[in-house]
What we know:
Elements: H1 20-23, H2 45-51, H3 57-67, H4 72-82, H5 86-98, H6 103-123, H7 129-152, E1 160-165, H8 173-184, E2 188-191, H9 198-208, E3 212-216, H10 224-235, E4 243-247, H11 253-259, E5 263-264, H12 268-285
Parallel strand pairs: 1-2, 1-3, 3-4, 4-5
Amino acid sequence: MTSRCKSSEQLPPYRIEQSPRALRAPLKRATKPITHHPPMPIVNEGLEREFEWVTRPGEQKHISEALDLADEMMQEIAYQLIIGKNLEVDRLTKECLDKGYTANHILDNGLLNGMAIVGVKFRDNVIFVPEVLVAARAMKAGMAHLEPILSASGIEPIGTVIMGTVKGDLHDIGKNLCIMMLRGAGWVVHDLGVDTAPEEFADAVMEFEAQVVGMSALLTTTMPNMGRTISYFEDIGLRDEVRIMVGGAPVTREFADEMGADGYGENAVDCVETAVSLLALQKELA
Length: 286
C-alpha cells in the first residue's frame, strides 16, 4: 500500500481562517498580559519578555521546568528562534557544537524551548502565520547541523506517528509546529500534508506500522471529517490497532471525546505529551 507523504517543509500558500471564537470579534493581536515572574532564573532578557506571553499555569510550569535546564547559550538560541533570526540560530548552533554541547542538548534545551513559546503565541493570536514561518525557518537552520548527528547516533525512536490535516482542509501551520516538536522529541513522523482522506490515514498506518495518528483541522466545516476518519478505522477493523489524537483552533476536548478520539492536544507541547501517553496506552492494550 502506498500513502501520500508530503514534506512539512514545503508549505503551500495560506489564508487565515477564523475560528468560531474569532468570528465573534475582529481578529487582532493580543494585548500584552500582566507581567508575572517566572519561577526560574532566565538570564536572557529577551527570552524573559517572551516568557511573559505564557500565561496558563500548566504551560508556565512545563516550559519553566524545561528552561530551568537551559544555560545562557541555550536561552539565546531559544530567543533567536522565537524572533526568527535564522542566521543567528545557525551560528549559535554551530558554536555550541564546537564547544562540546551534544546535539540532543541543543535540541531539547535550545530549539524546542523556543518552538514551545512560538506555539503558545500562535495559538493565542500574539503572532500569526508570517511570524511562525520565520521561526520555523530558524528551527530548520539549527536542525541542519543537528540532524546528521542525531541520525548517526543510532538512538531508537520513541514511536511512529502519522500526521495530517483532514479532508477538505488546506491549513497546516499548526500541524507543522506539532511535527517539529514530535520529531525533536524523538518520534518518527510521516506527514500526509493537507486534504487527507480517511483511506490515506489508514493506508499510512498500515504501511509504516504507526502507533499514533494525529489529525488537524482549522475549519468548523472540516471538523466532522475527524469523526468520519475514526469511523472508517472502525469499519475496516483498524481502530484497536492505533491511538488517535486530534487538535486545531476550533477543536475542543469535548468535541474530541464526542468523535471518539483517544486524545486531544491544545498546542504543540500538548501534542507531544498526548502522543507519549497514547503510546503507553497502546502498549498496555497490545
